[in-house]
Design goal:
single chain; about 300 residues; alpha+beta; Phosphorylase Kinase, domain 1; Transferase(Phosphotransferase), domain 1; 2 domains; 6-stranded mixed beta sheet; two-stranded antiparallel sheet; disordered C terminus; binds adenosine-5'-triphosphate; Protein kinase domain-containing protein; Kinase-like_dom_sf
Amino acid sequence: MALIREKRFSQMNLSLHVPSRVPFQDAAAAARRQCPPPVAAASTSSTPASRASQFRLADFERVAVLGRGNGGTVYKVRHRETCALYALKVQHSGGGGELAGAEADILSRTASPFVVRCHAVLPASASASGYVALLLELVDGGSLDAVARRRAGAAFPEAAVAEVAAQALSGLAYLHARRVAHLDVKPANLLASTDGEVKLADFGIARVLPPRAGDHRAPPYAGTAAYMSPERFDPEAHGGRYDPFAADVWGLGVTVLELLAGRITAFKKSKMQNLLNCVITTKFNITNGMLQTTDLSAKQQGQERHFNNLLD
Ligand SMILES: Nc1ncnc2c1ncn2[C@@H]1O[C@H](COP(=O)(O)OP(=O)(O)OP(=O)(O)O)[C@@H](O)[C@H]1O
C-alpha cells in the first residue's frame, strides 16, 4: 500500500524536480530561424532508435513544453538543419537514465502507426551530464487526458470513443504480438494527432515478457491505481499472479468508460468486457479478458476519423 500511496502522491504532484536548463536553444532562437511551415518528422521514417549517433542535443532548439510527468519533461523541439519538429522527452539521471534506456529499448523494437515512434536516444554528454533524452515523433494533438480536460468533463461521442478504442487496440495487438506489455494504459498515455491518429505512448514501465503460456508472476508494483484490474491492484489476494496483457486490456476498458462517461465509473469485469466488445467497431474481440484479433488490415482500411473535431 505504501507504494500505491507513493504513486498516487507523485501523480498529484506533477511539479517534481525536472531539469530547468537543457542544453539546446529556446524559442527565441527558434523564432530567428528561417524555416518553412513546421512539419512533424514522419512517423514512418526509417530512422531506427539505434542510430542515435546521428543526432545530438545541440542539433535541436526548444519550441515549447508539451508536458511534464514523473519521468521528466517533454519538449517540442525543432531540428536546426531540417526544421523538422519532434517531441524530446528529457529525463534526469537520478534513476531516469536507466528507465529511459528501458523505454528506448522497447520503443526501438516497435514500428507501428499506433505506437509513438522513437527516432533516437540522445545520451548524456560532457556538456549535458545527467540528462538522457528520447527523441520522439511529435503527436500534435496531445494526450487524450488533455483533450478530455479541455472538454471540461463532457463525455466523448460514442463514435469518437469507438475510433480511439479501435486504434488503441491495434497498438496493443501489435505490442502483445511482440510480447510487450505496456502496463500503463490510460488517457494520459494515449496521444492523438490532428489527423485523427491515436498512438500509445509512455513506455516507462512497459515490459518484454518471456514466451510462456498462462499467467505471469506480477511485475513489481507500478502503474496507475485507477486503471488497474483487481488482480493487479492487489496481486496477493490473487496468488501473486496476473496476466500483464489482460491488464492492458483492462486499462483500455477503464479509459473507454472514462471517455464515454466523462469520469471514472465503477464497473464489474463482465461489464468491462461487454462494453469493449460493443464499442469497438473492428474485428477485435475480448474473450476472458484477453484481446483477440482477426484480419486487422481489412478493418483498419474502413476506419473513419470521428474524433478530429475534438482536437480543435
Ligand atoms: N510524442 C509526443 N508528442 C506530443 N506530446 C507528448 C509526446 N510525448 C509526451 N507528450 C506530452 O508529455 C506528457 C508527459 O509525457 P510522458 O507520459 O511520456 O511522461 P512521463 O514522465 O513518463 O509521465 P508519467 O508521469 O505519466 O509516467 C504527455 O501526457 C503528453 O502531454
